[in-house]
From TrEMBL:
The keyword Secreted does not apply. Residues 1-159 form the Protein kinase domain. It comes from Vigna unguiculata (Cowpea). The lineage of its organism: Eukaryota, Viridiplantae, Streptophyta, Embryophyta, Tracheophyta. This is Leucine-rich repeat family protein. SUPFAM superfamilies: Protein kinase-like (PK-like) (SSF56112).
C-alpha cells in the first residue's frame, strides 16, 4: 500500500486483530485476504496467494504510482470508472498510454518512452492469464533498462479459468493437450 506521499506501507488486512483477540501467535484462515484492486482475478478461484498473484499486485502498484490514482477510485472526468488496469489498458489500446501519467508530474522532467515502458510493464504484470505475466526477474531487468517490456495486446484479454498454459497454441491439434486442464465441477444434492 502507499500513503499520500507514495511511501510503501505494509498492511495486515485485519489478520493481526484476529490473532490478538485469541491470544495466539499465528492464525490459519480459509478466507481470502487482500485489498480489492490489487488482487489478481484468479485469487478468488484458487483462494490463495501465488508468485503470479504477487506479480499482478506489483503491476497494479506500478500503475498506481505512475498514474497517481488508486486502483478502484472513480474519476468520471477522465473515464476512469472502476479499475486502473482497465483504464490504462484502454488508453494503451488507443495509443494514448502516456496520457495516463499523473498530472502532478512535471512533463518536462519525464521521458515519454520511459513512462510508456513502465506503464506497459505494469499492464504485462496485470495480464489476466497468470502464465503470461513476467517474472520479477524480468520486471527488474526492464526497470534497470536491461530488457524491453513484454509485449501486451492492445485490447485487454478476457479472464478465463483455468488459464491456458504458455505451451498451448491456437491452431495446433488440441487433442494432444486435451485433458491437461481439469475443469472444476461441483455436484451437490438437493
Amino acid at each position: 500500500m502507499l500513503d499520500s506521499d507514495y511511501n510503501a506501507k505494509l498492511g495486515d488486512f485485519g489478520l493481526a486483530r484476529t490473532i490478538q483477540k485469541r491470544d495466539e501467535t499465528h492464525h490459519s484462515t480459509k478466507e481470502i485476504a487482500g485489498t480489492p484492486g490489487y488482487m489478481a482475478p484468479e485469487t478468488f478461484l484458487i483462494g490463495r496467494a501465488t508468485v503470479e498473484t504477487d506479480v499482478y499486485a506489483f503491476g497494479v502498484l506500478v500503475l498506481e504510482v505512475v498514474c497517481g490514482k488508486r486502483p478502484g477510485n472513480v474519476y468520471a472526468q477522465d473515464d476512469y470508472k472502476n479499475s486502473i488496469v482497465y483504464w490504462v489498458w484502454d488508453l494503451y489500446g488507443k495509443g494514448k498510454v502516456v496520457g495516463g501519467v499523473d498530472a502532478r508530474l512535471k512533463k518536462e522532467e519525464i521521458k515519454e518512452e520511459e513512462v510508456e515502458c513502465v506503464l506497459v510493464l505494469g499492464l504485462a504484470c496485470c495480464h489476466p492469464n497468470p502464465h503470461k505475466r513476467p517474472s520479477m526477474r524480468t520486471v527488474l531487468q526492464v526497470l534497470n533498462g536491461e530488457a524491453s517490456p513484454p509485449q501486451v495486446p492492445k485490447e485487454r484479454p478476457a479472464f478465463m479459468w483455468p488459464a491456458m498454459p504458455p505451451s498451448f497454441k491456437e491452431g495446433e491439434d488440441s487433442s494432444l493437450i486435451q485433458g491437461t486442464l481439469t475443469p472444476f465441477t461441483e455436484i451437490t444434492g438437493r
